[in-house]
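Supplementary material to the annual report.
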Amino acid sequence: MMSVAPLKPMTVEEQAITAKKAAKILSMLTTEEKNDALRIVANELEKEYGIILDANKKDLKKGREKGFDQAYMDRLALTQERVSDFAEGLRQVAGLPDPTGDVLSDWTLENGLKVQEVRVPLGVIGMIYEARPNVTADAAGLALKSGNAIVLKGGSSSLSSNKMIVEVMHRALEKTKIPKEAVQFIASTDRATTQKLFTMKEHIDVLIPRGGASLIKAVVENATVPVLETGVGNCHIYFDKEAETEKALNIIINAKTDRPAVCNAAETLIVHKDWLSENKEILAETLKEYGITIHGDQEAAAVLLNVIPANEEDWANEYLSLDLAVKTVNSLDEAIEHIDQYGTKHSEAIITENDDTAKRFMQLVDAAAIYHNASTRFTDGGALGFGAEIGISTQKLHARGPMGLPALTTIKYMMSGNGQIR
Amino acid sequence: MMSVAPLKPMTVEEQAITAKKAAKILSMLTTEEKNDALRIVANELEKEYGIILDANKKDLKKGREKGFDQAYMDRLALTQERVSDFAEGLRQVAGLPDPTGDVLSDWTLENGLKVQEVRVPLGVIGMIYEARPNVTADAAGLALKSGNAIVLKGGSSSLSSNKMIVEVMHRALEKTKIPKEAVQFIASTDRATTQKLFTMKEHIDVLIPRGGASLIKAVVENATVPVLETGVGNCHIYFDKEAETEKALNIIINAKTDRPAVCNAAETLIVHKDWLSENKEILAETLKEYGITIHGDQEAAAVLLNVIPANEEDWANEYLSLDLAVKTVNSLDEAIEHIDQYGTKHSEAIITENDDTAKRFMQLVDAAAIYHNASTRFTDGGALGFGAEIGISTQKLHARGPMGLPALTTIKYMMSGNGQIR
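Predicted assembly:
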């Protein structure tokens, strides 16, 4: 059982079975053995940046031929510095506490049976992601550290880069206790392969999609393997009637403009009519100053500048740009109802000086992260001090919000007895 | 938002929306308010046992007409004592700690932003179950205690009983702070209703199927709502070459015969050839004495009595009867491989006096509960001291093994600041 087949062209099912075998070996390694391996992989990536950049050039050439836009090409492009960042990321993961083996609880039954609840790896993780080649190294590092094998399926536009990163990682893993078969890369991009990956419940323990809303939707709808849903954030900032003006403006500007393309950016400003009527000029000026395009309801249009009339789509849209929907309400509960209807359960904020109002908002709004008088931009593994994250979960089961290493584990009850029967 | 529509014939979608509104009210109640409500419901069920038994008679009559077997009719039948058991179950749940509101961790970022990870209800639970009417009261009690609304869909054979139990519960809830709309019962049994229930991702937070393998499979394959998979147990007992004879025999008899129809009963005995050759007579006698029908491989057939040749189906079968598959192996790793191939990740046991062998088995076997020298029958919320269980999870995400009240919760990050931005 402990032998692992050599790497050769395999079907996706063979790859998953091979990964599962490798995961067994990996699950028996010590934390130090895993950390040493991650550091060796990091060094190899830094040393071999040249061949990774060569492979990346092929992807960039294809991208230019296909006419990808500049933002997309920027995400695709690697530099020596970016490769060093992968390596640094792996070293950071090596420095994090190992969640596996932790005894979460233990007790002894009256009959003497000892019970331990122990944290263990999930097994095999299926990672499906889009343009950025850095996910290849980042996701592999988090999986290996938490004792899991990983099957990687990157986007076709970064195929050469991803393949070369995996090749370099494999070469490095040969010098370590981690079997290189614990990192599998699916090069095929045909539908049948993807469909198989989504449904190999017996070989893959969880699927994690990282990318746009359509990728995530495709995985959720077609997978029978359990999915850790990540990412789509239609985040709201609610200015209560008792919101302090400067705080409120600072927060909406930060949440909207700091990095508009990320999932914790604000997409809708909900504003109490009393606050709006007192602060309409400064709100209008501030949004204009930062180049924000407003899609507003009638009440917003009446007092703000250059407002595009908002429709149903605007309330539901994750713009990921400097566009902002503005909804006016008569009460806290109306704001909560709007979030219930259009929110994606990611990050929601209330700005108010009234603690009771804040408490009601925080209790009744259903989301991974709820803020009182702070920007939604803090919903991030790094910002919250989790050390590293595999994504931000917008689901309620298993893991919610930024997912660190523990999200890649499950538990096992281990019972030791001396012949106990019921 | 806080008003709830009156009960009237509703579509399943309207029922789910109504449940979600009620869940909001429920999530704001104190533990004491919830406990009081559960005790009032318990009293009402005991008081009104007569009309529940009358309703049950209708189901029993239909069952006889349909020619259900005696075991099925026994599960369906209610008595005054069984109704009292429901009530007692609700009182026990009232006595359990309330998991919601627990602060699981809290810290402050350098910028002063306070972070709390708080346990909160999931929201709305969809419960799909078969014959036993007791699930109606049990599941509702666990849901309400953990702050969740519940949409119940019982089997058609217990429709009258289930409906009356819900009616009595509703009448009692009117005297409490819990809105009666938090308990919804779906009386319709048509396919379209079921399909809708499986796919209302926006209104239902989790589906929990309780019943046979085919029910669970139907839910897992058709649902887009996340599922907490429960129950199927193809459990193995492995007699290592260093297994102590008396312990081994006691455990296999207990695990196979104590309650053969439950999911933590043993279905396959895996036996090391060395142990078998030393203990063949006593094993043969013991299995015969307890009326166990053996489905064995060639090596087992050569030394045991009246062995039916085992085939692939036997290795995978959850007999739920006094049938037992017997597989012989040459090594520990061969036993683990067999479990990897045919196990359902429920409960697995090794009998050995060698602690290193036990450790390897416990680390490498992938299941919710692993036993060393004890019966698999302990995988049960009651036996392990969880107080009550909503089912036994055989999946790895969210909850694994017996699921108590915490399995019906999720977490929320609550951040309090004074204007923090990134």
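Residues 49-66 of chain A form the longest helix (18 residues).
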